[in-house]
Amino acid sequence: MIPLSREPVAVYDCHVLLRRPAEAGGTFQARCAAAPSVSAEGPTEREVLQSLVIRFKYFIQEHQTAGQEIPWQSPELSPEPEEVERWVSVHL
Fold it and tell me: Which stretches within 1-92 are classed as H helix?
């Protein structure tokens, strides 16, 4: 049996602005509305979201490790007309 940790797990809601490709076979693009420097591209929505989550985790951990405040965008960026919104819960 695997022992369960009683330590709280940090969870962040990542508000994603996702742009679907204009043409079949194109690239999906995603950016974090609260951290515009966190972005990703990929061939499918699933892959671009997976890549964005990895980059989002790195962004958080990089600032925490350095003892810096996380530079959140406030207010968050709004979606452009061709973007759709997604929310991803990210566990560190």
Answer: 45-65
Q: Has residue 32 been placed in a domain? A: yes
**Counting Cβ atoms within 10 Å, is residue 44 exposed (0-12), middle (13-18) or buried (19+)?**
exposed
Whether pTM exceeds 0.90: no
Comparing CA positions, the residue from 79, 88, 90, 92 lying closest to residue 36 is 79
The CATH code of the domain that includes 29 is 3.30.160.250
Task: Give the pLDDT confidence of 37-52 residue by residue, as tens digits.
Answer: 999 999 999 999 999 9
Q: What is the pLDDT of residues 25-78, one digit of tens each?
A: 899 999 999 999 999 999 999 999 999 999 999 999 999 999 999 999 999 999
